[in-house]
Specification:
Keywords: Membrane, Transmembrane, Transmembrane helix. With 290 residues, this protein is of the alpha+beta class. The protein is 46% helix and 18% strand.
C-alpha cells in the first residue's frame, strides 16, 4: 500500500560525527546541528585564539589583533556552515581551488587538442554498435528511452497503484547496478513518421509529379520544422553495472517490469550507438549545436 508521506532515509555511510543534536542556549532552542559542525566551530575558534595569543600576531597593534580575531571567527563560521547536502562548506574548498585557474574551467575540444582533459570529464572509453557503453572505471552501461505513466490527471487509485508498483520495483533492484534517470529537452524524434512516409512513397503505383512534390514537401516539414525547431521532453534510464553480468541482471529486471506492467514504465527502447551519441550530445555539445 502506498504511503501518505515519504522521507529520505539515513545513508549507510553515516558516521558518529554526522549525528545531530539540539540544545538550548540562553533560553533559545538551537536547531539540530551535526557533531562535526560543533567540533569544527569549536576547534576553529580555539585555533584563532591560540594564533592571536601565542604567535607573532600577539606583538602587533591591538587594533590589528582585534581585526584578525574578527576575520578569523567570520572565516570559521562561514567554512563551518552546512551545504544543502548537510556537508561542511569547508569540504568544498579543495574543489574551489582546483577550478580557480582559468585552464581548469575551459576544456579545449579541437581535433588537434589534447583529449585527456575532455576524457576526464566524460569518462567513456567506447560505445559499441549495440549501444553498450564502456566506462573508464571498468563498468558497462546501456541507455534506454523510456515512457512513464505519471500525470497530473491521475485518479487517486491509479496514483496509489503506480506508487506501489514503483516501490515494488526498487525493492528488486540489485546494488551491483546503478540506475540514472535522465530528463532532457530535445528536438522531436521523427523516425516513425519518416519511415511511414517512405512506405507511402514505395507503395505509390502512379509516380505523379504532383504527388511526389507533395511527399517531398511533407519530408521537408518533418526534417526541418518538426524534427528541428520543435522540442519535447525525453526521458532515459542509464543502467551502469559493475560488470557485464550485473548489467545483464539489471536488464532482465527492467525488461520484466515493462512486460508485466505499464504502471511504472509503459515503453523502454534500447538505444544503439548513434542514438546514444545523440543523447550524449545534449550534455557535451548542446541542443543548438547537435
Amino acid at each position: 500500500m502506498a504511503k501518505s508521506s515519504y522521507r529520505i532515509t539515513t545513508p549507510l555511510n553515516r558516521g558518529y560525527l554526522d549525528h545531530e543534536i539540539s540544545f538550548p542556549i540562553f533560553g533559545f532552542q538551537i536547531p539540530a546541528t551535526p557533531l562535526k559542525q560543533l567540533v569544527f566551530l569549536g576547534g576553529g575558534m580555539l585555533v584563532v585564539a591560540w594564533a592571536a595569543m601565542t604567535t607573532f600576531i600577539k606583538d602587533a597593534n591591538p587594533a590589528l589583533i582585534v581585526l584578525f580575531v574578527i576575520w578569523g571567527f567570520i572565516a570559521v563560521f562561514y567554512l563551518g556552515g552546512l551545504t544543502k547536502t548537510r556537508e561542511l562548506r569547508f569540504r568544498t574548498v579543495p574543489a574551489f581551488l582546483a577550478y580557480t585557474p582559468k585552464r581548469a574551467r575551459h576544456v579545449v575540444t579541437r581535433r588537434n587538442a589534447d583529449p585527456s582533459e575532455f576524457y576526464s570529464i566524460v569518462g567513456i572509453d567506447d560505445v559499441a554498435e549495440d549501444g553498450e557503453i564502456r566506462f573508464a572505471d571498468g563498468s558497462v552501461g546501456q541507455v534506454y528511452l523510456v515512457v512513464g505513466s505519471a500525470s497530473y490527471l491521475l485518479f487517486d487509485e491509479d496514483r496509489v497503484a503506480i506508487l506501489d508498483r514503483v516501490d515494488s520495483f526498487w525493492r528488486k533492484v540489485q546494488t551491483t547496478c546503478e540506475y540514472s534517470l535522465i530528463t532532457t529537452k530535445e528536438p522531436q524524434r521523427i523516425y516513425h513518421q519518416l519511415a511511414n512516409l517512405e512506405r507511402r512513397n514505395q507503395a505509390l503505383e502512379i509516380r505523379d509529379p504532383d504527388l511526389l512534390e507533395l511527399q517531398n514537401e511533407q519530408h521537408d516539414i518533418l526534417t526541418h520544422h518538426v524534427g528541428g525547431k520543435f522540442s519535447s521532453i525525453h526521458q532515459y534510464v542509464l543502467l551502469k553495472g559493475k560488470s557485464a553480468e550485473a548489467l545483464r541482471q539489471a536488464h532482465l529486471i527492467l525488461q520484466a517490469e515493462v512486460e508485466h506492467s505499464s504502471l511504472m514504465i509503459k515503453e523502454a527502447t534500447i538505444l544503439d550507438r548513434e542514438e546514444s551519441y545523440q543523447m550524449l550530445r545534449v550534455f557535451y555539445q548542446g541542443v543548438d549545436a547537435a
